[in-house]
Design a protein that fits this description.
The protein is of the alpha/beta class and 342 residues long. It contains 13 helices and 13 strands. 46% of the residues lie in helices and 13% in strands.
Length: 342
């Protein structure tokens, strides 16, 4: 990629897409194109093809997806499998038809079997049953990996796939009906602190910015109830680390270099309960945290083997405590509250 290469970032408003754009700009790339959902619905094949034919992007980051945590995945199964398959199919096929030089497809670590050996190696794909709570999303993401592979084999394209671990960072989703685990924990504990301080004005502002506060949280006030047992292990990667890995691959590595896909992770994990304690310490909340064991835990452990991406010249820079501090500072700034200089 040259700094004036025409780059299309699909899904630029979300956590991953916005981080990719931020890091591209920091590296001097200045010809980035984007479209909002109102401007281009990637689920519409004709519209997607027309966009690619008109704009002729040279490089594509495919970060557009319908995403969510366990609750959203379990509730909207048909939407998750349809939306993600159709978005990937339309973008990948349109990229091929319009002559895109290189495409990077972003997947998810949920593609791996539920009880695969740890850490998860790229070779473990399709070696066992998936985790039932996110199977529709996983199947859609596996389909996109295979599409990229087979387009490369049949058409000679250079479409690469990367599988990031759980992500967090600026522009994450904090809607408590469909957010992922870390932003949900952070917002719940932040709200509990606000309730303990009786800070009604800021509670109202938080609801206005980040979405409805469920009635059970309002009833709980300064107490925090989190999903599951807290015992599953999860690996979390700061979004800027992922973006830098993606840009490195786009600049220096082809599909031939990385194989069918490559993992991108933090290299270490911790239990959800341990993560909650780091968040509690970061926020400065001294109240009670309890666990709703009637809710599902999901996969018991999901740590990626990142030896392949390390061999390509990348490794994570932001440790979890530093990352959560930066994450909370962004949340506070978005809320109009004072941040901490970390």
């Amino acid at each position: 990629m040259k700094q004036d290469s025409k780059i299309y970032v699909a899904g630029h408003i979300g956590l991953v897409g916005s981080s990719i754009i931020r890091n591209l700009k920091q590296k001097g790339f200045n010809n980035i194109i984007t479209r909002t959902l109102n401007e281009l619905d990637l689920k519409r094949q004709a519209d997607t093809e027309a966009f690619f034919e008109q704009e002729k992007p040279e490089y594509v980051f495919l970060a557009a997806a319908k995403v969510g945590g366990i609750l959203a995945n379990n509730t909207y199964k048909a939407q998750f499998i349809y939306d993600n398959i159709i978005i990937a199919s339309n973008v990948i096929n349109s990229a091929h038809r319009s002559g895109v030089k290189k495409l990077l497809n972003l997947g998810s670590s949920c593609i791996y079997p539920r009880l695969a050996p740890q850490p998860l190696k790229e070779d473990f794909l399709l070696t066992g049953p998936l985790e039932p709570t996110n199977e529709p999303y996983a199947i859609a993401k596996i389909s996109a990996i295979k599409m990229c592979r087979y387009y490369n084999e049949e058409y000679g394209t250079d479409f690469v796939s990367v599988m990031p671990t759980n992500l967090y960072g600026p522009n994450d989703n904090f809607n408590l009906e469909n957010s992922h685990v870390l932003p949900a924990i952070l917002r719940k504990i932040h709200l509990a602190k606000l309730y303990s301080e009786n800070n009604i004005d800021q509670i109202n502002k938080d609801e206005e910015i980040f979405g409805k506060i469920p009635d059970n949280i309002k009833a709980g006030k300064d107490k925090v109830l989190l999903w599951g047992t807290g015992s599953p292990f999860r690996e979390f990667l700061y979004s800027d680390d992922l973006a830098q890995a993606c840009i490195l691959i786009m600049e220096k590595h082809s599909a031939e270099d990385i194989g069918e896909f490559v993992n991108i992770g933090a290299g270490k994990d911790a239990t959800i309960k341990e993560m909650a304690e780091i968040v509690r310490e970061t926020i400065g909340f001294s109240g009670n945290i309890s666990w709703d064991t009637s809710k599902p835990d999901g996969t018991p452990k999901k740590q990626l083997d990142i030896s392949r991406i390390k061999n390509l010249g990348w490794e994570p820079k932001v440790d979890i405590k530093t990352g959560i501090g930066k994450f909370y500072d962004w949340y506070l700034e978005k809320s109009g509250l004072k941040t901490v200089n970390r």
